[in-house]
Amino acid sequence: MASKSKSRWADDEADAALEAQLKKAKEEKKRIKAEKLRKLEAETHAREAAAAVAVAAGTHEGDNSANEPPAKRRRISPARETVQTTAAGVDGSGGALQLLRFDGGTFGRCRSVENYDKLNDIEEGAYGWVSRAKEIATGKVVALKRLKIDPKDRGGLPVTGLREIQMLKDCDHRNVVKMREVVVGDDTSKIENIFLVLEFVEHDLKSILEDMPEPFLASEVKTLLQQLASGVAYLHDNWILHRDLKTSNLLLNNRGQLKIADFGMARYVGDPPPAKLTQLVVTLWYRAPELLLGAARYTAAIDVWSVGCIFGELLTREPLLQGRHEVDELARIFALCGIPTDDTWPAFRRLPNARGLRLPGKTAAASGATIRTRFPLLTAAGVALLSGLLALDPDRRPTAREMLAHEYFRQDPKPKQEAMFPTFPSKAGQERRRRRETPNAPARGQAAVDLGAVDFSGIFSGREKEERGGGFSLRMV
């Protein structure tokens, strides 16, 4: 009887040797990292001990009087005995004025990125690279964002990075991603080795929409939209414009909680907003028409327009306005929302890029928006909300706070509870995300486009022959 043949998938000696070599290399890497961490801790302890000795030596007058002057103590407020008041009754007794003393704290050194073990790359954005990592001491999984900094730029840390660190440090809301700390690389002479340690969230909304076989249910869309509006309202209440809201910058964890991320283009504003704001902001497909037409001043309404584009994308799983360039983007906006007129947008013609536009005449096809036709399954309240968010005139768009009180969220089906939200396999936790051909956020300093003379008179040709009505279909909610 013939002997049983050996499987071609069985491990041979070469496989065993390779596995042993890889294991040895991995152990050596861990040993080197642990040795670096040990040396760093030893240096820290040595500095602390030296500082303690110096402080103790300073308490004995005879110890350092012969060698060096005593250490100077930082004065927080004037000495109490030197502050007197001559007017009786100022402090209730006519005596010395007592000043409160507050400890202002001190600046400390950032921790090293070697405290984290990199697991895998996640995504590359316009203003940084994001990786998944694990804190060695606690085992907690985090997201490490390395800021994009040009080492040849003599200006140092760019203002976009400073703003992102400041805003993430100031924000505290359940629908805004949290920053734990800022860490640096071992070579502190290189300014590009700056990392933001963020909470790890399993998914981004764009990846989920690309892989879903069916769109979100109506109740799920309401849950996501409600959380998005809550986070945007918090930002606007605290005078923050995000300026790059899109599905790839919205994160979703496995408990149905949405979080706004990527504040590389965000900035603080006041009321009224500053006169000189960067004109070229927001990724093209989510850019408001006033920005495309060269508005020099804009408000929080540009974020609300982006929310409207995200609303439409949640319903169809496809970006709502996929323009190839600025002119094509404007044409798609006018085709969906109608041609601006003196009634719908009084200040339209005063914008720089609107003066050279040639628009079609006032016909029935060009007079109104086609949102109702584009979304036949959306309720009347949903169409009203989407139409308001995508109003051409920024003054007619609702605020994020007003959006939360809209009738759309009170109608059946009600927003689904977050605990009942479906879960999805996490690409961020296993492999590099698949990149699609989508536009990136504008780069800092990039000039806005001057559209010049553009002819839009033919964008509604043939619309009179289109079939009206969208039919219907039954679906469980």
TrEMBL record:
Record-stated family: Belongs to the protein kinase superfamily. CMGC Ser/Thr protein kinase family. CDC2/CDKX subfamily.
Keywords, comma-separated and alphabetical: ATP-binding, Coiled coil, Kinase, Nucleotide-binding, Serine/threonine-protein kinase, Transferase
EC number(s) given by UniProt: 2.7.11.22
Name of the protein in its database record: cyclin-dependent kinase
Pfam families xref list: Pkinase (PF00069)
Domain Protein kinase stretches: 116-409
Annotated segments matching region Disordered: 57-79, 415-446
InterPro entries: CDK, CDK11/PITSLRE_STKc, Kinase-like_dom_sf, Prot_kinase_dom, Ser/Thr_kinase_AS
Species annotation: Trichocladium antarcticum
Annotated GO biological process: regulation of mitotic cell cycle
PANTHER family: CELL DIVISION PROTEIN KINASE (PTHR24056), CYCLIN-DEPENDENT KINASE 11A-RELATED (PTHR24056:SF107)
Coiled coil: 15-43
GO molecular function term, any single one: ATP binding
GO cellular component terms given for this protein: nucleus
Reaction(s) catalysed (UniProt annotation): L-threonyl-[protein] + ATP = O-phospho-L-threonyl-[protein] + ADP + H(+); L-seryl-[protein] + ATP = O-phospho-L-seryl-[protein] + ADP + H(+)
